[in-house]
Design brief:
The chain is an alpha/beta fold and 470 residues long. The protein folds into three domains: 283 residues, Metallo-dependent phosphatases (Purple Acid Phosphatase, chain A, domain 2); 63 residues; 90 residues, no CATH class. Bound molecules: manganese (II) ion.
Length: 470
Amino acid sequence: MLNEGERLRLGHFSDLHYSPSHLAEADRCFRFAVDDAIASACHVGVVSGDSTDHRLDAHTPALSALARQIHRLSAHMPVLLLQGTYSHEPPGTLDLFRLIGAHYPVYVADRIHQVALCAGQFVPSDGPLFSTAEIDVLLAQHGMPEVVFTCVPTVNKAVLAAAAGVANAATAVGDHLAHYLAAAGTINRQWRSWGVRTVGVSHGTVNGCQTEHGVPMAGFDHEFTIGALFEAECDAFMLGHIHRAQQWEREGRVVAYPGSIGRFHYGEIGEKGYLQWQVTPGHAAASLVATPARQTVCVDFDGPPDMVRLADIAMEAADKFVRIRWTVNEEHRQLVDRDAVLALFGKSAEVKIEARVLPAVRSRAEGISRAASLPEKLSRWGELTGVDTAPLVDRLTMLETLDAQSIADGVLAELREAGAEGHPRADVTPTDVHHAEPSPDPVALVASAMLADHSSMDWLTDDLFAGQPA
Ligand SMILES: [Mn+2]
């Protein structure tokens, strides 16, 4: 196939996510990538996990569409498929693909191990690493391999949790993988000294990488550190799982994600594509070949949508996938004309509207239920509504402790006193009160006196909760 030291060209595809809902996007992009890899005379094809988006029935068109592309690729080069995330690619999904190799084999890597590619044939290790004895047999039977892959498919955390304890499972994954990668490093260094190219293939999160939404992934429960990956001493390390293309380089060796083959969600930044690798012993380079992924436009309004701005955006959004989000208060929801927004984007491939309506939340006298006595409740209510409750508390005490006659007598005495001082009330005079006899309702008397006493009593007739946070 290739001479020692010559450049090996690999097409590295990842996160194809074939499924009924992603079929158009996945198949347009992967078909393009397969065409391009064949035209570029790639020697080997690698799919680093998540070929499917979820469990697919055998009759699903998405499954046969994926199989067709893998079959096409295998007519021109050996293909290595790596097991990805179980929820996307249930274990066993890839088994069928072993049977569809055309001119070259399709090899499925679903366990941690190494596999050598010798004249178009995959020769795997029995255990996680090639033993010295295995290497001797391999060299005797096949000669020098063109490339040796170190495969680290998705690790089952449940199995690991059972072994390491649930609390340690997350970090234990990283620790176990780091140990494995370091051990693989010893073997890979040996291969390199013999002029054999070494390639790592894995599906997982590198601590510190960036997601397709531009969010850095930082934490200790991620599968790898970039240092641990370079410890494997692979010339090239081909990763899947993160949907954004990115790469790291150290002394000529490279670790890279191609990202997802297409744009499966709104808000994903960066170009989509597949990676074309050139690998020689001790050196690698990866360049992204962009696929015709759909273009998305995301517009967010903190309030009702601005129709003038939307009209401008719509001019540039023909054939694009558009998502418009806005947030309005419940009382303003009628102000937004959804149909008018949709009409603006008539030429777009899709318009997805996500309107968020904020419900009106009324806080009714917060904390009042925690006040123990009626006067305390009254005071709390006064604090919340900005009413001076001191005179009310006095009168409440009167109502609670005195009988009706005593209250009436007290009020009348007070009024008489005020009249004697020559300050008759403009609105309530002693005469008025006397007119209410002979059967004065003491509570009415108190109430009218209170009204008379305070000019700022309009809260009694107003909406009690007006002016509260809505
Ligand atoms: Mn994925």
